[in-house]
Write a structure and sequence with these properties.
heterodimer; A: mainly alpha; ABC transporter involved in vitamin B12 uptake, BtuC; 13 helices; 2 strands; 73% helix; 1% strand; globular; B: Rossmann fold; 9 helices
């Protein structure tokens, strides 16, 4: 500290001027999203070293990206929900329900082919996803039922209705144009699914970190009562967040139908846990208030990369579940450490920085 | 004295069979620090909640700048320049000081971008820093979450936020309750600077020395009524405690 206590303003001003760059770099390195990128890179490097030809191949990374795309679309909405301090267990079922309703409508429209039918199908899927999201949001915000219970209920209800509508047999009706362009199409070598997911992720990142919607989402997760006191309509914001997540689950339903050409009724019972694990590994706190969409994407890439690498190396892919489980627990452990540090009144953000200590002066 | 900027006459409020306020009077002048003291259950918090719009009185009259006023929500009060800092901070701990200052009042970009929800981040940052600086609230880190800051820093931010928006009256409910000596002094200095801007400050506190140190007048509530008003310079702790507990005969000097 400077000896000249008479001129604190000058010192303050100078420090103000130079903190941003270093602070941002440090904050960036401390952020769990960045640490998790490093973890992912280590995994990539290890697999690349062990299997240079098969793993380190553009086509292989393309496969990994495709396998993450649909989960990433779900992950964006789930990230927002978890940042409000809520949870969503229903998105896998909503995906299935939206796909089923969409497929049924498209099948009954004319010959079930062409872009006109496809667009109606997409809109139907988005609308049904939005409907489930609104139901979730309304029950959480207005009826004050805990989000875990609400979405556990809609998880069962959406899947149940999908089974009622189909009799439990997967539908396969989808216009060829939709399957060819969205499911398996690509633009200059980049799969359409990856492009769509990227657009959703980028919009999610901008909305979360740059818009008032994102700010209020985090503020509610941080302190809902404070938000009410400053006149933010907390209920409406919560309904919007759940509705957006539902809408994205509807979109994911279309992508899923286009890619698998099936409504995959039985294949999505654990999707919710995969997505939540990705969100949490990515550094979003289950206690709300803080999180990133970018972290979620990386958090989803890690299990996908592990699964892919294990298959290539001939390791039983079941090991992936074990490793991801360990990652999940570790991620939440670091989140706890961070929160404990925050409660102690320090700005420590990670376990690593606990090794250093800086004197802090109060007001 | 001139017209009080904010005045309550005969406020009555009961919760079921419990009457919290039984005809309480209150008034505060512009540019004055007015302390509101009373034992637990005397009705201080109820009175503040009513005057900040969080609750509605069962009876009585509220005058704002001499004219009758009805508040149905805290937003009504805030839109008239009446701000309240509640005991439990009410900051969003994960947001930075600027985001907290503008929470619920974000400056939006003009035109389409604004309608899409984009904010004037740099303008908020600049104005926010100015507002903190003009109150002498030393905020060391404008981009870190307030949850990582000390209790004194957070209280300073909460008070400065209210002061930045309060053009008329600011209520502070036990702003120093959880603070150490140095931080308390910081908040008391902040209170004086807010008063010097011509804003009426209403301080609710249990600390008699602090009340005598910073306030101009002291209102004493007991059993839902204002039982005494003292000039802070002409009274002492014994007299205040006496009025609070009813050991002395209060002098109602409205």
């Amino acid at each position: 500290m400077s000896v000249q206590t008479q001129e604190p303003t000058a010192a303050e001003v100078e420090r103000e001027a130079r903190t941003p760059v270093s602070a941002r770099v440090m904050a960036g390195l401390r952020a769990q999203a960045m640490q998790i990128v490093l973890v992912w890179l280590v995994i990539v490097i290890v697999f690349s070293a062990m299997s240079p030809d098969a793993f380190l191949d553009a086509a292989n990374f393309r496969n990994i990206a495709i396998s993450v795309s649909i989960l990433a679309v779900l992950g964006v909405g789930t990230t927002f929900i978890i940042i409000t301090g809520g949870i969503d267990l229903s998105m896998g079922s909503v995906l299935v329900f939206s796909g089923v309703v969409s497929s049924m409508v498209m099948q009954r429209l004319g010959d079930g082919q062409g872009w006109g039918v496809a667009i109606v199908g997409i809109l139907v899927a988005l609308a049904s996803g939005l409907m489930w999201g609104l139901i979730n949001g309304f029950l959480v915000a207005k009826a004050k039922v805990p989000p875990m219970i609400v979405t556990l209920g809609t998880f069962g209800a959406a899947l149940g209705l999908a089974l009622v509508l189909t009799g439990g047999i997967d539908l396969r009706a989808a216009p060829d144009v939709l399957v060819d362009s969205v499911g398996f199409g690509d633009v200059v070598g980049v799969p359409s699914l990856v492009i769509i997911a990227t657009v959703v992720v980028v919009i999610g990142i901008v909305a979360l970190h740059r818009s008032r919607f994102g700010l209020h989402t985090a503020a509610i997760g941080s302190n809902a009562e404070a938000c009410r006191r400053v006149g933010i309509n907390v209920d409406r914001q919560l309904i919007k967040v759940y509705a957006m997540a539902g809408l994205l689950a509807g979109l994911a339903g279309v992508l899923n139908l286009a890619f698998f050409r099936s409504t995959t009724i039985a294949g999505n019972s654990l999707t919710n846990l995969d997505v939540i694990a990705g969100v949490v590994i990515g550094g979003t706190s289950l206690f709300g208030g803080v999180g990133t969409v970018f972290g979620t994407v990386v958090g989803l890439l890690i299990p996908a990369t592990l699964r892919n690498g294990f298959v290539i190396l001939g390791v039983e892919p079941y090991w992936q579940q074990v490793v991801v489980g360990a990652f999940l627990i570790t991620a939440v452990y670091f989140d706890q450490v961070r929160r404990a540090a925050a409660n102690r009144g320090t700005t420590r953000r990670s376990a690593l920085s606990r090794l250093t200590h800086r004197n802090r002066k109060d007001v | 004295m001139s017209t009080p900027v904010y005045e309550a006459r005969g406020i009555v409020r009961s919760y079921g069979s419990v009457s919290a306020l039984q005809g309480a009077h209150f008034d505060v002048q512009p540019g004055e620090v007015c302390a509101l003291i009373g034992d637990n259950g005397a009705g201080k918090s109820t009175l503040v909640r009513i005057l900040s719009g969080a609750e509605q009185p069962d009876g009585g009259e509220i005058l704002f700048e001499g004219r009758p006023l009805e508040l149905s929500t805290p937003t009504d009060a805030r839109s008239r320049g009446i701000e309240t800092v509640f005991q439990d901070l009410a900051l969003a701990n994960h947001l930075d000081p600027i985001q907290n200052m503008y929470l619920g009042r974000e400056l939006m970009k003009p035109g389409v971008l604004g309608r899409l929800g984009f904010m004037e981040r740099s303008a908020m940052r600049d104005h926010g820093k100015e507002a903190f600086a003009s109150l002498g609230a030393t905020v060391r880190n404008f981009s870190g979450p307030v949850g990582g800051m000390s209790g004194g820093q957070r209280q300073a931010i909460a008070v400065a936020r209210a002061a930045a928006w309060a053009s008329k009256v600011i209520f502070l409910d036990e702003p120093t309750a959880a603070l150490g000596v140095v931080q308390t002094k910081g908040v008391l200095d902040l209170i004086r600077r807010i008063r010097d801007k011509g804003i009426a400050v209403v301080l609710i506190s249990h600390s008699m020395p602090e009340v005598l140190q910073v306030s101009d007048r002291v209102h004493v509530l007991r059993q839902g009524r204002r039982v005494a008003v003292y000039q802070a310079k002409q009274t002492n702790v014994e007299e205040l405690v006496g009025a609070m507990t009813g050991a002395l005969d209060g002098k109602e000097a409205a």
